[in-house]
Design a protein that fits this description.
By secondary structure, this protein is mainly beta. The chain is built from no helices and eleven strands.
Length: about 120
């Protein structure tokens, strides 16, 4: 089973920042640079939604609700992708998942935005 490893979640007040990390397992090291890496989130009672993605060509895409606040980046040499989240809002509260080619997933990391 291929599992990505997310970290960096936690509790932060509104307006705060967090940086999530996602490290690929060794089994996909050799193909990492060609993978579409994405962050999704799922809040209680809601469907999973795309937050941000980083393509193998170096382009990025964002969900409308996070544009201008979140930044996705990757380092292919470190097999890692990050999600920098600034100006967090209570509605950003969710479990955040990392995905590779929408085939391989992590177990998620909880982000809670609350005063």
């Amino acid at each position: 089973q291929v599992l990505l490893r997310e970290s960096g979640g936690g509790l932060v007040p509104p307006g705060g920042s967090l940086r999530l990390s996602c490290v690929a397992p060794r089994s996909i090291f050799s193909v990492f640079s060609g993978l579409l890496m994405a962050w999704y989130r799922q809040a209680p009672g809601k469907q999973r939604e795309l937050v941000a993605e980083s393509t193998s060509f170096g382009s990025t895409n964002y969900g409308d609700s996070v544009k201008g606040r979140f930044t996705v980046s990757r380092d292919n040499s470190r097999k890692t992708v990050w999600l920098q989240m600034n100006n967090l809002k209570p509605e950003d509260t969710a479990v955040y998942y990392c995905a590779a080619d929408n085939q391989y997933w992590g177990q998620g990391t909880q982000v809670t935005v609350d005063a």
